[in-house]
């Protein structure tokens, strides 16, 4: 990734910089790989990055939208995603959000409990609508990722338990305003070990075999997303290995004739195209440390404070001899730390610094804690 620093001088830091070329390259790669597999469909997970300019590019590549709130449904529709390609998940769908989704005639609700199913049916009946639903099943599959972003274990709040599948389907088939069309799964995020996805395939195969014994056939298998990115060496691995990812499902998932496989990719679509651009405010010396204090903090990029996540940090303004720094923000919290004891070319007040691989779960998770301004995201071809 290249950074047009001269153009940055007219923009107030901190801000997000999105490389449009990298985003388009990523989307072309996805399109090329799914075209090799009949029945594969990708929905972009809006929660990763909902910047309108970013969404305008993504929708050009014929992807659907994966939403987890009424606000995301509105954002996706307003950005041009067709309602017939919108799927809606979430453990706590409010009545107004269900009404909104029904009014738009979205493709499918990913339902997470029988209690939710009953409310969707009740609201659909009042609106004289038929709600298409997939049941989100908790497959109890271990994902090798951070504990805070696993979603497929029995202890997680997401999904319907394996032992309740038959009961849920029986209830759905008895409801007049519900059309049951398939099953939905998601085991976690930032997964790089394909064995995790193979384990999910094996579990889905077992479930399908069991259902077919009872005469139940599925039209849709939604495997969620979860494909990770390389946070350590983003420049060397800008484009995730989508070929291996999709080929894994094509090889190990035992599909029936006419079945569709739906994916919900977020981080792997937008993660590597974005960087948080910030300036050095001060270099502070203590008896044991040298702190580089930036004008960006955990309000702008919360992942390091929340998950102890790693983002590669580069000095855009200096190529001097490297020194060791703790890179921190200005927020009145001890957890407002981006990295400890890292080597960077000597930093000075006013130097531009980039925190890479921040295109997913960066701008969208920003807050106004300490009454700070929200960072703005800029596309490279609009600077």
Automatic annotation (TrEMBL):
GO terms for molecular function: diaminopimelate decarboxylase activity; pyridoxal phosphate binding. PROSITE patterns: ODR_DC_2_2. Keywords: Amino-acid biosynthesis, Decarboxylase, Lyase, Lysine biosynthesis, Pyridoxal phosphate. Residues 16-359 form the Orn/DAP/Arg decarboxylase 2 C-terminal domain. The active site is at residue 332. InterPro entries: Ala_racemase/Decarboxylase_C, DAP_deCOOHase_LysA, De-COase2_C, De-COase2_CS, De-COase2_N, Orn/DAP/Arg_de-COase, PLP-binding_barrel. This is Diaminopimelate decarboxylase. Pfam families: Orn_Arg_deC_N, Orn_DAP_Arg_deC. Pyridoxal 5'-phosphate binds at residues 226, 264-267, 361. Pathway: Amino-acid biosynthesis; L-lysine biosynthesis via DAP pathway; L-lysine from DL-2,6-diaminopimelate: step 1/1. GO terms for biological process: lysine biosynthetic process via diaminopimelate. Residues 39-270 form the Orn/DAP/Arg decarboxylase 2 N-terminal domain. It catalyses: meso-2,6-diaminopimelate + H(+) = L-lysine + CO2. Homodimer. Its cofactor is pyridoxal 5'-phosphate. Its EC number is 4.1.1.20. Belongs to the Orn/Lys/Arg decarboxylase class-II family. LysA subfamily. CDD domains: PLPDE_III_DapDC. The modification N6-(pyridoxal phosphate)lysine is found at residue 47.
């Amino acid at each position: 990734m290249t950074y047009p620093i001269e153009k940055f001088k007219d923009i107030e830091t901190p801000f997000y910089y999105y490389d449009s070329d990298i985003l388009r390259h990523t989307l072309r790669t996805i399109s090329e790989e799914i075209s090799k597999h009949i029945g594969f469909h990708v929905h972009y997970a809006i929660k990763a990055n909902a910047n309108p300019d970013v969404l305008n590019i993504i929708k050009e590549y014929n992807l659907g939208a994966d939403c987890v709130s009424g606000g995301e449904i509105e954002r996706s529709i307003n950005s041009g995603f067709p309602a017939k390609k919108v799927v809606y998940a979430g453990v706590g769908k409010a009545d107004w959000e269900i009404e909104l989704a029904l009014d738009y005639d979205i493709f499918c609700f990913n339902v997470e409990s029988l209690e939710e199913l009953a409310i969707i049916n009740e609201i659909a009946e009042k609106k004289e609508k038929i709600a298409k639903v997939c049941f989100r099943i908790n497959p109890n599959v271990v994902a090798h990722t951070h504990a805070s972003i696993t979603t497929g274990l029995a202890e997680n709040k997401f999904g319907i338990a394996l032992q309740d599948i038959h009961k849920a389907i029986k209830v759905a088939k008895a409801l007049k305003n519900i059309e049951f069309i398939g099953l939905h799964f998601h085991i976690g995020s930032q997964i790089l070990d394909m064995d995790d996805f193979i384990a999910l395939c094996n579990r889905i195969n077992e479930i399908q075999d069991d259902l077919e014994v009872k005469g139940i056939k599925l039209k849709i298998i939604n495997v969620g997303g979860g494909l990770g990115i390389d946070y350590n060496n983003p420049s060397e691995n800008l484009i995730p290995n989508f070929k291996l990812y999709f080929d894994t499902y094509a090889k190990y998932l035992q599909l029936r004739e006419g079945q569709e496989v739906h994916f919900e990719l977020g981080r792997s679509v937008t993660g590597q195209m974005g960087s948080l651009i910030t300036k050095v405010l001060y270099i502070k010396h203590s008896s044991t440390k040298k702190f580089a204090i930036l004008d960006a903090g955990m309000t702008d990029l919360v992942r390091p404070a929340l998950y102890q996540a790693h983002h590669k940090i580069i000095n855009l303004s200096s190529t001097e001899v490297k020194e060791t720094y703790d890179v921190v923000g200005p927020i009145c919290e001890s957890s407002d730390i981006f990295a400890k004891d890292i080597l960077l070319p000597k930093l000075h007040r006013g130097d531009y610094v980039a925190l890479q691989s921040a295109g997913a779960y960066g701008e969208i998770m920003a807050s106004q804690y300490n009454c700070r301004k929200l960072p703005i995201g800029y596309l490279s071809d609009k600077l």
